[in-house]
From TrEMBL:
Cofactor: Mg(2+)
Gene Ontology BP terms: L-tryptophan biosynthetic process
Lineage, highest ranks first: Bacteria, Pseudomonadati, Thermodesulfobacteriota, Desulfobacteria, Desulfobacterales
Gene Ontology CC terms: cytosol
Catalytic activity from the UniProt record: N-(5-phospho-beta-D-ribosyl)anthranilate + diphosphate = 5-phospho-alpha-D-ribose 1-diphosphate + anthranilate
E.C. numbers: 2.4.2.18
Domain of life: Bacteria
Name listed for the protein in its UniProt record: Anthranilate phosphoribosyltransferase
Gene: trpD
SUPFAM superfamilies named among the record's database cross-references: Nucleoside phosphorylase/phosphoribosyltransferase catalytic domain (SSF52418), Nucleoside phosphorylase/phosphoribosyltransferase N-terminal domain (SSF47648)
Molecular function via GO: anthranilate phosphoribosyltransferase activity; magnesium ion binding
Residues annotated to bind Mg(2+) 2: 226-227
Amino acid sequence: MTFTDHLNTIIRGEDLSHEQMTAMMGDIFSGDITGAQIGAFMAALATKGETFEELAGAARAMRRKATRIQTMTQRVVDTCGTGGDASGTFNVSTTTAFVVAGCGVCVAKHGNRSISSKCGSADVLEALGVNLGTDPEVVEEAVNDIGIGFLFAPKFHSAMRHAAQARQEVGIKSIFNMLGPLTNPAATRHQLLGVFSPQLTEMFAQALKLLGAKRALVVHGHDGMDEITVCAPTRVSELNDGMVRTYDIDPLDFFDDYADAAKIKGGDVETNAAITLSVLKGEKGPKRNIVLINSAAALLAANEVDNLKQGIEKARQALDSGKALEKLEALAQFTQENA
């Protein structure tokens, strides 16, 4: 079947199989599809609504075109989320990545510059001294030698350029906005993944299952946050041993009270970089707490701890000992020296 055949299937409101979506996206990422066709595809699929099979198929096509890196251990975790929740928090998942690395778990942090917020993961890391321009070989070395590396999406996903103009011209949220967390070039099989809508938690968990993930926690806060929030309970769809179960996490089980949302707000790049540094240096309060609970979830996904309480304690030790800050400093130094 041709791209147009598959497009007509979507227009009729019918779902594609995993393999059909892989073929469609493969055509797009090969540069064989026109901007008008890509625009029609985006609009038709967004109107119909994506299935987890379609999401996994699209991610598989993107993974095939990515520049890959090899890791020395099978137990590598990512904390990349979809973004797009408009909550205005600081860079929680990026700060979390250094805490998890400080706990001795290997982290391949996938991310990009800001798209829907004032400050993306790449923006804050650049402000903190991490060189984004290093070659994939250097990133691979950082992951394996330091225990953390930043996989700057444009360096690894050059095929995405074929959809860039159509995405910009059409200007709608589409399946392309969902693929980042599912396309880590290190092929991480352990993941903490925040999503911008509660309807996406099970979809992403099922897509990760199809893509071969071992354990993942896909989360969305009841307050709308695409992290585990400390301001309200959080919906979690957990993939573990091939099974997906959905439940709620309540911060009251771990902290004294719900936090005021204003206390975890971020701002521009300089503001968010300063917040990340202050948390890594041991500052107490709601910002630390949201990093602790997200770090605990990432450690759980990596099978480093048996439950969230153990994870919070382990994350607390990484912060208080300075090991989390050391990981940031080591990554910044390594990427500058190997520019």
